[in-house]
Design brief:
The complex is a heterodimer of chains A (515) and B (147). In chain A, 45% of the residues lie in helices and 25% in strands. A five-stranded parallel β-sheet of chain A has the order 2-1-3-6-7, with helices on both faces. Chain A has a five-stranded antiparallel β-sheet with strand order 9-8-12-11-10, sandwiched between helices. Chain A has a five-stranded mixed β-sheet with strand order 14-16-17-19-18. In chain A, helix 4 links the parallel strand 6 and strand 7. In chain A, helix 10 packs antiparallel against helix 11 and helix 12 packs across helix 14. Chain B is an alpha/beta fold and 147 residues long. In chain B, helix 2 runs parallel beside helix 3. The N and C termini of chain B lie far apart (30 Å). The chains are: A alpha/beta (515), B alpha/beta (147). At the A-B interface, helix 10 and helix 11 of A face helix 1 of B.
Chain lengths: 515, 147
């Protein structure tokens, strides 16, 4: 990041290079009138030994020095002080030499004997030009700083949609380093396929001179996730010296792009989107809750009546195995309907915990044994690692069993045989309160970033059956206990033992005494 | 079957009344009264003096829990209260009554028998407690609502 420019010295520094002390003194007298800072040197060697050249804006250079000529020194000076104007001090007899020096890049020449007024006027022009150039550079630095430090995404896209520039914030949000992506097709790099035609159209409109305000799109990140960005776009003309931009293929014009580009400035609104989604979800749940209150009794009664009639029908059909088989199938469907109904009602109903002292392992073992039917005919193992951990908790065992059951059910559905599920407990704390951390790992395919992000959302499911409420209910119950739940994918560990569980991991953090 | 009970049932749903009529005899009991409302249930109980009552909660004119409370006052009888509501308030009201056992709808034939036995035992324990005068009402583990 560039530092802010130091204020320009009163009038800048002038370097006088002359071996004749009288000429030096004379020049000093004249220049002091205008308040310049003055430095003198008598030889070429002395000039080259100077340390810093930053603030030297003019060099008055005698053509003939004891250890060389102005022509010899000029190329070096162009390197050392590219911004300084060199003025050759010369006699009438040597005008040709002075003109040669001008060709080498000297700014002007001054004839001896020195006439103060033209010299002062010439220096004044040089000082003005220097000050302007400095000011411009400082303001460029300042703008570069602004662009690079701006807490918003700034990208530039050429008319062929190749990426010309992205600022550090855009790098951070997308996870892409500028060096990796500049020059690539920005549309394909950053915009999800389903949004590409709309965004291409808005970029074309920008290039045609329109301002685009408030366009929301997801942006593709390096890790495969998406972030929501709100964009404003407009065209910019004739850019030069774009900070951080890689040189375009044409070496004759490095850091230079002339023509129109799309300037897009974006705000990462992922968090806002998430909270909007949550609000929406909460509203949807409230609506469902209201609906459920109305529906609960009637549907519950209807299900109860249907169940009663099924049992009566089964009695009537005792002697007819084929018809009885059909009743069995209806009973299965009825059970499924009842289960869905119970789940939704359970999720919508207020959660009241009945806490009892209970060892946690008894709870998950109960959940595991209740899944016996699901495990039938499958190759499934449950591992427990609870060494030295006090498993006594004050929890609602019935609710917590539901949490474990839902997690186990998901693992059983996701994993192919042979299934290994590990429950690991460690001592932990939640804000200094004693807690137990329980990790349930499986050896399935793990969770995609999308699933990991949405697994606890109500009605989110990757299965073809079910309400998608299992993990949402689990979260609700765990949070009602003052605990936390999250999900991730265990990175494939190096030891073969650990690799067995390199699938999904669900972490519970439960306070020992949840009341 | 340990004992043949004379049972009065109440439900505003004809399907459920029909169910009790057909199922209870299979469990070895006799249905002595069938009502569609709470008030009707109380009238019938006065006449037929049943050993056990099975009643729905939500019925026109008087709900099943209210009917059970009045019944306890006039002629203490074990009552099974059946409901599809299973909200904490209903369950709380029902289980606060020493004579009442709560059963969540839908009813399954397999669980009806054990619940009847449990209701009768609870009632007998309560009555024994009353005669001893210690006033302690033994609590029986309640049937928790289905998931």
């Amino acid at each position: 990041m560039a530092t802010p420019p130091a204020p320009l010295p009163s009038s800048g520094r002038v370097l006088i290079v002359d071996d004749d002390p009288d000429t030096r003194a004379n020049l000093c007298d004249i220049l002091e009138l205008d308040g310049y800072e003055i430095e003198t040197a008598g030889t070429l060697a002395e000039v080259l030994a100077r340390p810093a050249w930053d603030d030297v804006f003019a060099i008055l250079l005698d053509r003939q020095l004891p250890d060389g000529t102005a022509e010899e020194l000029l190329p070096r000076l162009r390197q050392l002080a590219p911004e300084a104007a060199v003025m050759i001090v010369t006699g009438h007899s040597d005008l040709h030499g002075a003109i040669a020096a001008l060709r080498q890049g000297a700014f002007d020449y001054i004839l001896k004997p020195i006439n103060p007024e033209p010299l002062r006027a010439s220096l004044m022009r040089v000082a003005d030009r220097y000050r302007l150039a400095r000011g411009k550079r400082h303001s460029e630095d300042a703008f570069r700083t602004l662009v690079e430090a701006a807490p918003c995404l700034i990208i530039l896209v050429r008319p062929d949609f190749s990426l010309l520039y992205l600022n550090p914030c855009a790098e951070e949000v997308t996870g892409h380093a500028a060096g990796e992506v500049i020059g690539r097709n920005a549309l394909e790099q950053f915009i999800p396929p389903e949004y590409r035609s709309a965004i291409a159209e808005s970029w074309r409109r920008v290039l045609a001179g329109q301002l685009i305000r408030g366009v929301e799109t997801p942006v593709l990140c390096r890790d495969g996730s998406r972030r929501w960005v709100l964009w404003n776009g407009q065209a910019v003309m004739e850019l030069e010296g774009i900070p951080g931009a890689a040189p375009p293929p044409d070496p004759a014009s490095p850091y230079r792009f002339e023509g129109t580009a799309v300037l897009a400035i974006g705000q990462d609104i992922t968090a806002l989107k998430l909270s909007q989604e949550r609000t929406l979800q909460a509203e949807r749940l409230a609506a469902i809750g209201q609906m459920m209150t109305g529906l609960a009794h009637e549907s519950g009664n209807a299900l109860a009546r249907s169940q009663a009639c099924l049992e009566m029908l089964a009695m009537e059909l005792q002697e007819q195995p084929e018809a009885l088989e059909l009743v069995g199938r209806i009973q299965k469907a009825q059970n499924h309907l009842q289960q869905l109904y119970d789940e939704v009602r359970n999720y919508a109903a207020p959660l009241k915990l009945e806490r009892e002292p209970w060892p946690l392992d008894a709870v998950w073992r109960q959940a595991w044994s209740n899944l016996a039917v699901r495990r039938q005919g499958r190759d499934v193992l449950l591992h427990e690692e609870t060494a030295n951990v006090n498993l006594h908790t004050l929890i609602d065992p019935f609710r917590m069993e539901q949490v474990f059951r839902n997690i186990f059910e998901n693992a059983l559905a996701a994993c192919a045989d042979p299934v290994s599920i590990a429950v690991t407990c460690t001592e932990a704390r939640i804000d200094a309160i004693p807690a137990i951390r329980v990790t349930i790992q499986d050896n399935g395919p793990g969770l995609t970033p999308e699933v990991r992000r949405r697994i606890f959302e109500p009605f989110f499911t990757t299965k073809t059956k079910g309400t998608g409420l299992g993990m949402a209910i689990a979260r609700r119950i765990v949070e009602a206990h003052g605990g936390q739940i999250d999900a991730d994918t265990t990175p494939g560990a190096s030891s073969p033992g650990a690799r067995r569980f390199a699938g999904a991991s669900i972490h519970l953090l439960l306070p020992r005494d949840s009341s | 079957m340990s004992q043949c009970l004379r049972i009065a049932v109440a439900d505003d749903e004809p399907d459920m009344r029909d169910y009790y009529r057909r199922i209870l005899p299979r469990l070895g009991h006799r249905v002595v009264g069938v009502s569609a409302t709470g008030a009707e249930l109380l009238d019938q109980c006065r006449e037929c003096r049943p050993d056990l009552v099975i009643t729905d909660v939500k019925m026109p004119d008087m709900d099943g829990i209210e009917a059970a409370i009045r019944l306890t006052r006039d002629q203490p009888t074990p009552v099974i209260v059946v409901s599809a509501l299973h909200d904490p308030e209903t369950i709380g009201r029902a289980t606060a009554e020493p004579t009442v056992t709560y059963l969540a709808k839908p009813i399954r034939q397999a669980e009806l028998g054990p619940v009847i036995t449990q209701a009768v035992r609870r009632f007998e324990q309560w009555q024994a407690g009353r005669k001893d005068g210690d006033g302690i009402v033994p609590t029986v583990s309640e049937t928790r609502p289905a998931r």
